[in-house]
User: What shape does this take?
Amino acid sequence: MFRITEVVKYLLIINVALFIIGAINLFDTSSLALYYFKSPEFRPWQVVTHFFMHAGTMHLFFNMFALVMFGSALETRWGPKRFLFFYIFCALGAAALHTGYNYFDLNRQEKAIVSYEESPSFDGAFLYVKRFAPKYLKRQYISAKEYLEDVADKIDDGDPRYIEEGKKVMLDIYQYNRDIPTVGASGAIYGLLLAFGMMFPNAELMLLFLPIPIKAKYFIPLLMVGELFLGVNQFSWDNIAHFAHLGGALFGLILILYWQKYGSRLGGV
Assistant: This one.
């Protein structure tokens, strides 16, 4: 008979409790989300607190559903100490890869802004907007493009006022991207999915919208390839931190391979 294991139960309680506290505004939970380390909103504790927070009811539901379904099976096999260590390790790995990708992406943006300052041009500002403006904020994205198109000649003619305005458009986008908060247990959950696929490769899984059973050893790799594709392409309708998902899975894989080679002092099999 299926049962919710002890560590999974407590993780479930903490996540749901913090979601309710945030929903009823018992206290301000915004400082518990993870911000990029150069953001003025960053606090060291966010590295841990963010993976107990969720952006909405469905976000919470799907993560907790996966936690119960896959986490309980893994905790039963590994034991509570080993399972909890794995969960937190994956969550921190997710934060590490997500932050690493942000560092790479924001560095590109900083260089583009410096290049514009050294050699102001409409093309420099416009290409920056096309490349880095968050397209899921469609109104702001279109507004920035239209504004630059309206003052293109003034920027290229060297008008200091409009050169500065072009820089401001770029800085607004940079600061928005820098200050996007990240929340959710998804990184840890993707680590659990990866582990489940390795521990129970022939277990059959089904998507809610595609009720066809697929063995875990096929389903999990396809899921990871999909995450990589979405993360690299950054589609306009997508504001999900895919590299956090991949980070959780990657660090989970590294830890499992380590355990397989050297064993674990935390118990379980």
User: Anything to note?
Assistant: Residues 80-118 form the longest helix (39 residues). The mean pLDDT is 86. Residues 70 and 196 are 6 Å apart (CA to CA). The radius of gyration is 22 Å.
